[in-house]
């Protein structure tokens, strides 16, 4: 009998222990209150503190974009206009910029936005001691290299930044850069208030910005609440009272919440794989699917035998590109949620054209493809299997299965896929240059400029591990045109030069463009107006309203 | 008894050390560099990467990393995640949700499993026995994610009876559907286990003897049949509570529950050794304790079992 009692007591104790541990989670409730015009948006937990220059993924980027106003802002289509800046004036060869700020801008803690708010923030970001993940964005500013050494305190400033007065500063660049006035619209270039430097850690948990929204709370792994910043007088016309970013374990769960219109979630910027076919006709949601800014390509390393940047290699690259029926893949695999690629940027990039010389190389033409491949074989015979590597955790399998099948069928060559389990392992193999065949590449722009798609991905300066030129493509004619574009007086003439540079790429095909992923997403039926998606493939948060 | 308990508790020490070392080694052996992955497909600034490696001791050899973790763990400092959050905070945020869900599923499967099992076992061959058998077979053979999606669509979206997802800070009602889904497979097993035990025990000699002595039917059932039948059921339930506390990755994902299962999955993907090891150690402790409780319960159910 005694044993029984003891066993029972043990059980009772453990149950009590478990129950008491549950108690903690009951106090806070997160239900939507009917009155306020708050938009509930889909998100993932930010992988870094909410510091603009330490944010390099969308979980933190989405709230960050709404919390901080930069020198320029972008409209839905990616056109830049001055926001905090009054003017950004280049010198003759675009190596020095004089930036004047508008007066009256304030952080939400009441302190003014001055020239120093920018220069100190940029120096902090560039200084390697501070381990900011977006630091390489500042590499074109003079003095960056000095801030990458070992013995830094973290407070050293970029020598290329000079404060003239409270509302003026100058930027000296290492080289001409006509895209600089667009670049400064990227989140990492946000100004920071003086309070940041006292305690960056606390700031990362509760940021103080100057954007259209003000930080309210961050409940980790649950949600980030932003409320409308009533002092904001920038370019955005804010139509709601706040945006709450909610963390979801799964996009299907999020889609279900939007379908049920239960107040838990209002908008998401992706569509789960199982709904890509049906969401456009789903009566329970508001769908959106239009041309987007993300380009999907695959890269064939320039060092790969038979595919080098010579006559044989070019013939083979063209043949492969022409043997792929992009429209069929889009139609059958992607359910129409993409557009066949015609260049190396995207339809949402200012200066985009779908009829560049050489864009025929991206059009399906099986007989021409065979012909070109035979010509290449005449130079040197290709035997072996062309492999296509991709990360298996990102849903790329059906696309590469289709690519491989089309190449086998249309070109008669031996091709195979090589799935690599995780994105991490995949990127490791790419950065260590261990790829022995083609591999998946894609680009989501940081700022809406052809420069971001071209210079970062295909210039010699970005090759050999110094940037994102993963295929180590090198062509001095391309580099020269990009540099000329970088030194151009205005955006239009720069874009003309970037188009010429692209025509070289369309001939050499360092990567083979497949398609532009659509910006697709859904909003709940409670959102009455303003739902659309911008050049980042993100919802137009500021414009949405439930009233 | 006390000696036995002490011995069992002391046994836990080598188990904890062994598990942490093993799990730490496994995470360390995961392919891919977590620091490089932080930069995505953007250029990696090596100076910054070196700073981050130094901060998380990732530049040290494996065994040094492990001892640093162990040393700090003794002072209840389990380190930080790559996002800069203390590991302890992450766990204390996720664990209450998992406990709540796990307990609800446990109560659900225990009550319904045993009840239906008894009904079925006592009235073998009746139409409701057949129905219970078919339903339990169905639950066992259909994967959880199918049950989950179907129930979510029907109860949540079509009929709007229960909340579609649980979300952060779930209430009892939010977790009702997930708990049912999570507990359904185990419930089916318990039904079958209880039914088989009862129907075999009911034909035992000691039951006939008890009846011959003139014991009432209720007394016979409660004291002899049920008590003996429940021993394997209790074993199963004890194992299951440990499994439930480990979080249910699939159920948590379907219903947007921010519990231990989802946290573990995320931290493995990111190569967060500190977080993975801390969670696994905690789960292992729970498992060991549950097993101990089950062993003690045996003694209560079966007088022949004694611990010295």
Concise account of the structure shown:
The complex is a heterodimer of chains A (547) and B (308). With 547 residues, chain A is an alpha+beta fold.
Descriptors:
heterodimer, A: 547 residues, alpha+beta, Dipeptide-binding Protein, domain 3, 7-stranded mixed beta sheet, globular, B: 308 residues, mainly alpha, MetI-like fold
Please tell me about this protein's structure.
The complex is a heterodimer of chains A (547) and B (308). Chain A has 547 residues and is an alpha+beta fold. Chain A has helices spanning 2-22, 58-67, 115-126, 180-183, 195-198, 200-205, 251-260, 311-322, 326-332, 366-379, 397-411, 423-431, 450-458, 476-486, 491-508, and strands at residues 38-43, 72-74, 80-82, 85-90, 96-101, 161-165, 168-172, 213-219, 223-228, 242-247, 267-268, 286-299, 338-340, 386-391, 415-420, 438-443, 511-523. Chain A has a domain at 292-518: Dipeptide-binding Protein, Domain 3 (Dipeptide-binding Protein, domain 3). Helices cover 30% and strands 19% of the residues of chain A. In chain A, strand 2 and strand 3 form a beta hairpin. In chain A, helix 8 (311-322) packs antiparallel against helix 10 and helix 13 (450-458) packs antiparallel against helix 14. Chain A is globular, with a radius of gyration of 26 Å. With 308 residues, chain B is mostly helical. Chain B has a domain at 91-271: MetI-like (MetI-like fold, Orthogonal Bundle), CATH 1.10.3720. Chain B is built from 13 helices and no strands. Chain B has helices at residues 2-29, 34-37, 46-55, 62-74, 87-122, 127-141, 144-158, 172-201, 205-212, 217-245, 249-254, 260-270, 273-301. The longest helix of chain B has 36 residues, at 87-122. Chain B is flat. At the A-B interface, helix 1, helix 7, helix 12 and strand 16 of A face helix 2, helix 3, helix 5, helix 7 and helix 11 of B. Chain B: It holds the Pfam family BPD_transp_1. Chain B: This is ABC transporter permease. Chain B: The chain crosses the membrane at residues 12-30, 97-119, 131-155, 175-191, 275-301. Chain B: It is found in: Cell membrane.
């Amino acid at each position: 009998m005694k044993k029984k009692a003891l066993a029972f007591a043990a059980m009772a104790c453990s149950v009590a222990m478990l129950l008491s541990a549950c108690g903690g989670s009951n106090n806070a409730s997160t239900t939507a209150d009917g009155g306020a015009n708050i938009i509930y948006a889909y998100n993932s937990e930010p992988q870094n503190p909410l510091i603009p220059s330490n944010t390099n993924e969308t979980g933190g980027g989405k709230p960050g974009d709404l919390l901080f106003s930069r020198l320029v802002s972008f409209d839905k289509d990616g056109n830049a206009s001055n926001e905090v800046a009054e003017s950004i004036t280049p010198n003759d060869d675009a190596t020095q910029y004089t930036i004047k700020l508008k007066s009256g801008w304030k952080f939400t803690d009441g302190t003014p936005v001055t020239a120093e708010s920018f220069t100190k923030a940029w120096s902090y970001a560039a200084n390697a001691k501070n381990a900011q993940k977006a630091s390489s964005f500042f590499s074109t500013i003079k003095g960056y290299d000095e801030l990458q050494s070992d013995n830094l305190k973290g407070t050293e400033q970029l020598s290329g930044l000079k404060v003239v007065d409270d509302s003026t500063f100058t930027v000296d660049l290492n080289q001409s850069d006509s895209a600089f006035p667009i670049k400064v619209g990227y989140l990492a270039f946000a100004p920071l208030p003086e309070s940041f430097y006292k305690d960056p850690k606390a700031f990362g948990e509760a940021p103080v910005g100057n954007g259209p929204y003000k930080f309210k709370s961050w409940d980790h792994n649950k949600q980030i609440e932003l409320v409308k910043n009533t002092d904001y007088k920038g370019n955005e016309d804010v139509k709601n009272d706040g945006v709450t970013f909610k963390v979801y374990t799964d996009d299907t769960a999020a889609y279900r919440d939007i379908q049920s219109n239960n107040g838990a979630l209002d908008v998401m910027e992706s569509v789960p794989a199982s709904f890509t076919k049906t969401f456009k006709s789903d009566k329970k949601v508001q769908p959106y699917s239009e041309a987007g800014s993300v380009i999907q390509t695959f890269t064939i390393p320039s060092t790969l035998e038979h595919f080098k940047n010579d006559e044989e290699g070019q013939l083979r690259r063209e043949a492969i590109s022409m043997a792929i029926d992009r429209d069929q893949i889009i139609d059958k695999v992607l359910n129409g949620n993409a557009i066949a690629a015609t260049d190396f940027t995207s339809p949402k990039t200012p200066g985009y054209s779908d009829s560049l010389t050489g864009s025929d190389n991206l059009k399906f033409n099986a007989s021409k493809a065979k012909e070109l491949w035979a010509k290449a074989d005449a130079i040197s015979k290709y035997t072996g299997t062309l492999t296509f590597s991709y990360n298996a955790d990102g849903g790329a399998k059906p696309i590469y299965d289709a690519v491989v099948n089309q190449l086998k069928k249309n070109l008669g060559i031996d091709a195979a896929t090589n799935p690599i389990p995780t994105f991490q392992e995949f990127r490791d193999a790419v950065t260590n240059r261990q790829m022995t065949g083609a591999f998946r590449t894609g680009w989501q722009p940081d700022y809406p400029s052809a420069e971001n798609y071209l210079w970062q991905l295909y210039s010699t300066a970005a090759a050999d591990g110094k940037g994102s030129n993963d295929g180590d493509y090198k062509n001095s004619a391309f580099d020269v045109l990009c540099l000329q574009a970088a030194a151009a007086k205005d955006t239009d003439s720069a874009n003309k030069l970037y188009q010429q540079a692209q025509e070289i790429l369309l001939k050499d095909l360092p990567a083979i463009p497949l398609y532009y992923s659509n910006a697709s997403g859904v909003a709940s039926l409670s959102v009455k107006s303003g739902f659309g998606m911008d050049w980042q493939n993100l919802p137009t948060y500021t414009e949405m309203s439930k009233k | 008894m006390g000696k036995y308990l002490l011995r069992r508790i002391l046994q836990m020490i080598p188990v904890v050390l062994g598990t942490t070392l093993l799990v730490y080694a496994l995470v360390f052996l995961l392919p891919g560099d977590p620091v490089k992955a932080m930069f995505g497909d953007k250029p990696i600034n090596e100076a910054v990467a070196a700073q981050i490696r130094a901060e998380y001791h990732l530049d040290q050899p494996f065994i040094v990393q492990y001892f640093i973790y162990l040393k700090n763990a003794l002072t209840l400092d389990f380190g930080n995640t790559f996002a800069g959050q203390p590991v302890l905070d992450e766990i204390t945020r996720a664990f209450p949700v998992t406990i709540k869900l796990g307990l609800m599923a446990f109560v659900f499967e225990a009550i319904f499993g045993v009840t239906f099992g008894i009904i079925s076992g006592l009235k073998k061959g009746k139409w409701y026995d057949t129905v219970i058998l078919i339903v339990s077979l169905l639950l066992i053979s259909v994967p959880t994610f199918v049950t989950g999606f179907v129930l979510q669509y029907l109860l949540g979206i079509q009929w709007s009876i229960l909340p579609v997802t649980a979300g952060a800070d779930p209430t009892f009602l939010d977790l009702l559907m997930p708990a049912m889904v999570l507990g359904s497979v185990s419930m089916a097993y318990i039904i079958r286990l209880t039914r088989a035990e009862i129907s075999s025990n009911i034909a035992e000699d000691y039951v006939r003897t008890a009846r011959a002595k003139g014991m009432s039917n209720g007394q016979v059932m409660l004291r002899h049949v049920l008590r003996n039948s429940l021993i394997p059921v209790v074993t199963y339930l004890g194992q299951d509570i440990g499994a439930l506390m480990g979080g249910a990755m699939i159920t948590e994902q379907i219903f947007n529950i921010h519990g231990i299962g989802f946290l573990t999955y995320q931290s493995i993907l990111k190569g967060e050794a500190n977080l993975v090891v801390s969670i696994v150690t905690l789960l292992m402790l729970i498992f060991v304790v549950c097993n101990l409780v089950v062993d003690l319960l045996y003694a209560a159910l079966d007088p022949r079992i004694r611990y010295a």
